[in-house]
Amino acid sequence: MLRQAVESDPRVLAARSTYQSKLVEAEGAWSAYLPVLRGTGSAGSSRSQDPLVRGGDKRVYGLELEQPIPLFGRESARVELARVAARVEESEVKRVEQAVVGEVLEAMLGISTAKETLALRERLAVNLSEQVAAVRETVAGGGMKATEERLIQSRAAQSGALRARAAADLAAAQAKVKRLMPEATPVVKLQENDLRSWWRGPLTLEAMEAAALQAAPALLKAQAEAEQAGAEYAVIRADLWPKLSVTMQAQRGTFGDVPADSQSIFLGVSVPLFEGGASFSRVDSAAHRQSAAKDRALQEGRMTMQRMAEAWARWRAAEAMALAWRESERQEEEAVKLTGEQLAGGATTQVGLLRAKQTWLETLVQGVDYRSQQDVAWVRLLQEAGALSLTSASPHNEK
Fold this sequence. Notes:
The longest helix has about 70 residues, at about 75-140. The chain starts with a helix and ends in a 15-residue tail after the last helix. β3 and β4 (about 260) form a beta hairpin. Helices cover about 65% and strands about 10% of the residues. The chain is α+β, with helices and mostly antiparallel strands. It has 9 helices and 5 strands; from the N terminus they run ααββαααααβββαα. The mean pLDDT is about 90.
């Protein structure tokens, strides 16, 4: 299911198309080493009163072959620039793919959370409805004050509003998944092992930081852009050197009543001698861009480590909270059982049991939220580490 969502996402498709265009350009860059073959031709008429100048109708056609001589690195620099430009777009594809995977996972988690929350809210609504009836009966019998009935009715109304919001949250989550998924794609509930299996290394901050330095898409793109700036600098510097080529020409035709057939071969040299300082300005500008790109890559490396540390801390805190809340849920469940035993022994009332169940259900609702926060924090930690790539996903991750 994840693979289907990624493969059909317009953002991924656009990034891949751009990458493919850069690959084509990289292949075409090798043509700088190959000869250029041109067809030539002309037709016209020339008249002159000078007896030493030939006149008449002229019609010629021919071929011209120009072979560059790669001596000063101009051609290799252009090939390298095209190759690095493709690497930049490749890193962008990885960044977009992982962003989409993270978005889909969070959307699927959102559906699971919304469904569990709505189910618990419905149980709470039933519980409070039963409390309203039980409290009304008790008040009528003189066992409670009338204010208690008002309070429980207020809580029942609040519960109805919260149930409606939970239903709206579920509808919103389903709409988001529908937008991200291709039509007719079944939505599978994520299990805890599905999320944890994305990471196969040691579960330590150091291991994840090491992975991020190798695979974090934003860092890879910054490093590729630094290489691209270096390649651009090399191209501009190479343009300062002479351009050499060998040109061969052959033509056939007539000029007046005389054949105009010819063959020639010559060595061409093109050297920029004076351009008002434009060439050296371009070199200096490219050098500064290269330095800036290197600094950005260095800063991105630092920011990657900072984001990893923050994501790790958020996940650990969410994990601790979810674990502690599970114990709270267990204690509340035990309290409900004890209250039920007390009711059987006449030590409490039906209202007391219903209130104990209400507290337990409200604890469960909060627990669903804490576990959702834990799962989302884990997904974002994986994304910072560059671990949400489909190429490294296990088969059940791709469902």
